[in-house]
Every structure is written in structure tokens, then in C-alpha cells.
From TrEMBL, chain A:
This is Metapyrocatechase. Its EC number is 1.13.11.2. It is an enzyme of class 1 (oxidoreductase). It comes from the Bacteria. It holds the Pfam family Glyoxalase. Homotetramer. Belongs to the extradiol ring-cleavage dioxygenase family. It catalyses: catechol + O2 = (2Z,4E)-2-hydroxy-6-oxohexa-2,4-dienoate + H(+). It comes from Marinobacter salarius. Keywords: Aromatic hydrocarbons catabolism, Dioxygenase, Iron, Metal-binding, Oxidoreductase, Repeat. Residues 7-122, 150-269 form the VOC domain. Its cofactor is Fe(2+). InterPro entries: Catechol_2-3_dOase (IPR017624), Glyas_Bleomycin-R_OHBP_Dase (IPR029068), Glyas_Fos-R_dOase_dom (IPR004360), VOC_core (IPR037523), Xdiol_ring_cleave_dOase_1/2 (IPR000486), XylE-like_N (IPR054560). The keyword GTP-binding does not apply.
TrEMBL record, chain B:
Gene3D superfamilies: 3.10.20.30. It comes from the Bacteria. InterPro entries: 2Fe-2S_ferredoxin-like_sf, 2Fe-2S_ferredoxin-type, Beta-grasp_dom_sf. One of its GO terms (molecular function) is iron-sulfur cluster binding. It comes from Marinobacter salarius. The keyword Ribonucleoprotein does not apply. Pfam families: Fer2. Its EC number is 1.14.13.7. Keywords: Oxidoreductase. This is Ferredoxin. Residues 2-96 form the 2Fe-2S ferredoxin-type domain.
């Protein structure tokens, strides 16, 4: 957080059918619908999140991710980060306050991998859902499905990882937590953090720009991940792989798809990172184990099925 | 009993039954067959693209990137979103179209 970028704040996901998508993200994943806007977008949050929304769904004829937003500590940091981006040669676009309901102004930019990101300082603080801020109970009743705890991170696929690294690390103050290097020492995957989490965002090299691999949501325990797997079967939801463990980050995970084919993850655990931690390196020839620690073999789908 | 249709995949010569209202891809998976690659199963990723050579069908929503109007005219569609109205003959081409990973990507080379 050394440059003032605090945490992942939101992701806007394109869906082919809004009703099906809302049902998936609320009934199955346990997000809570908090608002809708006159563009037809639906706003959702996970119950432990203190701001009004973290997931925005937009109906479109092509699924994928419109942008991911990071919350910064205050307006002064936003002004400085915007200046730093411009000085670094990044084109920035102003998105006015209120474009996303109850969200302050956003500074949007596209990185060389083809993905759009935003920084913002203000969003309506609504507090954790269903519990008080004074003498709070352990958890709220009335949560559905997987009872997702928080929106955690996204994984994007695209080219130009070195240039993306420069922006995230040198301009925005992220820290490289883990990487995959090929035989020539070229970084083909980078897991970046602004917190003690093992990743707040990750990129894997892919020739085509701007592809969305998954949006991930945190669960507390392995038992919760198994219960999520049960719910995926009960609802006949399209599964990708899991429950299993990643080598990278060591998180325990399951992957599945929303009704428009966007990949979701729910996971628990994962390593912690302090700023003095050196990056963990996986060698490309161990990529199978790095991604699926138990199978030690990549499934084709994980590398090629994207929106 | 639901109406059942026979789906024949031309390249492999394999065929399987598909109930009315069931997607071609789901029917194939249920019968343990692999003549069409399985991706997101949601019309989003383009992985299960086929061409319907013969027969009538309905489609669910599919990504316009993978099924633009000109592809739809050629009956190039996603098997996860194809619901047969008659017996179908389909063809699953080897993956060489845009939207699928090119053979030169580093990620592809790692497989």
C-alpha cells in the first residue's frame, strides 16, 4: 500500500442474461444485491465488505470483464497516483462521480495487456451486511448459498506482462508475491499484492489481449470450499476444476462458471506476504503442480477457456 | 418421455442421443463422449464451436465475439447453446479460429 492503493474495490462483469446472472451471484454465491441503475446494471456485495458494492453486472452480447477498480486511501493519493500514471506515459480517462451509483470519481486506464483498471477514493460506506458495527455478532443470518465473504482478486490473461508489471509495481506500489519463469527467465505469470494477501491481482501471459480468466471470492475454510462444491452439483452449475489446492499461493480452491461462461473461483487459505518477502518462483516446467498441486497436470481448459 | 434426437459428429463419426430441451454439449458430456471440446458451457468462451451440417435447431444466448451474425448464417454455433429440433449432423473443426489460443503462445507451448 506504499503508494496509497489500498485494495480491490470492484469488478464490472459482462453477462449475457441479467436474470440468470443475478440468480447465480446471489442464490448460489451468496452475494447481496444492493442496487440497480438506469443503465440496467446490478450492484452486489459480499457480506463482510464495508462499502456498498464490489461486483457490478452489465448485460451485454459478449461476456467478460469491463474493468477492475482499486480503492485508494484518499483523494490526495488519487491525485498523486493519477499524476504518476500520466508521468509514466499511461493515458488516463476521467469517469465522473455517480457514474457508478454512490461511487466517487474514478481514474481509468488501460494497461498493455489490454485490461482496464480504475482507481477511486470514495464509495458509500454501508458497513458489513446484517451485523452491527458495535458488539457485532459473528455472522449474519439469512445468507444464501456459498456465503461468499469478500470479492478477493481477479486473474487476467494477456500479453506484455513486463510492461504491466512496471505500472503495477513501480507506479501503483504493488509487490510481486509469486511468479512463473520460463526457461529463458521470462516471466509468464505474475501474482501481485498491495496487502498481506498472496495476491490482489494476477496476470498470465497470453497472446490475445484483454481476456478475463476469473473473479475470485474468499471463503473461510476448506469445509466451506467443499460445501461450495456440493452447491455447484446441487444447482447443476458448470464446474471447471476442484476442489483442489494451488501450488501458486497454496490456496484451496474450486473453479466454476457463471451462466454466461465467466469463470468464478471460491477459495480459502493462501500464503501471507509482508513487504520484505522475496517473490516465490515457480519454474514453467512445474506449471502443472504450480496451478493444480494435487493433479500436477494442467487441464487444457484452465489455459484456453476465457471470456 | 421427452423426444429424443440423434446427434452425429461427422469428423469422429460418433453419435449420441440428445433429449429435446437439452443442449448438444450437455447430452454429449452425459454420455461420456468427447467429440466436441468442453469449455465454459455458458455460450461465453467459444470453445465448443461446431457447424451444424444438417437438421433444425434453436440457440440460446451466445457471445457475439464467437458467434457473429455471419457465423450464425453459416450455422457455426456453440454446442453448449444448441437445442435440437430434429436429428442433427454436426462437425467439430480442429481449433484454428480466432478466439482460441494460437499455437505460438507461450502458454500453449507449455502444455
Amino acid at each position: 500500500m506504499k503508494k496509497g492503493v489500498m485494495r480491490p474495490g470492484h469488478v464490472q462483469i459482462r453477462v449475457l442474461d441479467m436474470d440468470e446472472a443475478v440468480k447465480h451471484y446471489t442464490d448460489l454465491m451468496g452475494l447481496i444485491e444492493t442496487d440497480r441503475d438506469d443503465q440496467g446494471r446490478v450492484y452486489l456485495k459480499a457480506w463482510t465488505e464495508v462499502d456498498k458494492f464490489s461486483v457490478v453486472l452489465r448485460e451485454a452480447d459478449e461476456p467478460g470483464c469491463d474493468f477492475m477498480g482499486f480503492k485508494v486511501v484518499d483523494e490526495a493519493a488519487l491525485v498523486q497516483l493519477e499524476k504518476d500514471l500520466v508521468d509514466f506515459g499511461v493515458d488516463v480517462e476521467q469517469v465522473p462521480e455517480g457514474d457508478l451509483k454512490d461511487c466517487g470519481r474514478r481514474v481509468r486506464f488501460t494497461v498493455p495487456s489490454g485490461h482496464a483498471f480504475e482507481l477511486y477514493a470514495d464509495k458509500l460506506y454501508t458497513g458489513k451486511w446484517g451485523i452491527n458495527n458495535v458488539n457485532p455478532e459473528a455472522w449474519p443470518r439469512g445468507l444464501d448459498g456459498m456465503k461468499a465473504v469478500r470479492f478477493d482478486h481477479c486473474l487476467f490473461y494477456g500479453p506484455e506482462l513486463a510492461a504491466v508489471y512496471d505500472i503495477f509495481v513501480n507506479v501503483l506500489g504493488f509487490h510481486l508475491a509469486e511468479q512463473v519463469l520460463d526457461g529463458d527467465g521470462t516471466r509468464i505469470a505474475q501474482f501481485l499484492t498491495v496487502s498481506m494477501k498472496e495476491h490482489d491481482i494476477a496476470f498470465i501471459h497470453h497472446e490475445e489481449k484483454g481476456k478475463f480468466h476469473h473473479a475470485s471470492f474468499f471463503l473461510e475454510t476448506w469445509e466451506d470450499v467443499l460445501r461450495a462444491a456440493d452447491l455447484i452439483s446441487m444447482t447443476d452449475t458448470s464446474i471447471d476444476i476442484g476442489p483442489t489446492r494451488h501450488g501458486l499461493t497454496h490456496g484451496k480452491t474450486i473453479y466454476f462458471f457463471d451462466p454466461s461462461g465467466n469463470r468464478n473461483e471460491v477459495f480459502c487459505g493462501g500464503d501471507y506476504i509482508y513487504p520484505d518477502h522475496k517473490p516465490v518462483t515457480w519454474q514453467a516446467e512445474q506449471l502443472g503442480k504450480a496451478i493444480f498441486y494435487h493433479d500436477r497436470v494442467l487441464n487444457e481448459r484452465f489455459l484456453t477457456v476465457l471470456t | 418421455m421427452a423426444q429424443v434426437y440423434r446427434i452425429t459428429e461427422q469428423c469422429s463419426g460418433k453419435s449420441f442421443e440428445c433429449e429435446a430441451g437439452q443442449s448438444v454439449l450437455k447430452a454429449m458430456e452425459q454420455r461420456g463422449m468427447k467429440c466436441v471440446p468442453v469449455g465454459c458451457r455458458g455460450g461465453g468462451c467459444g470453445y465448443c464451436k461446431i457447424q451444424v451440417l444438417a437438421g433444425e435447431f434453436e440457440c440460446g444466448k451466445m457471445s457475439k465475439v464467437h458467434v457473429p451474425p455471419e457465423a450464425l448464417k453459416k450455422r457455426e454455433v456453440l454446442a453448449c447453446r444448441v437445442y435440437p429440433l430434429t436429428d442433427l449432423t454436426i462437425e467439430c473443426r480442429p481449433p484454428s479460429q480466432p478466439g482460441l489460443a494460437s499455437k505460438q503462445t507461450k502458454t500453449t507451448a507449455l502444455r
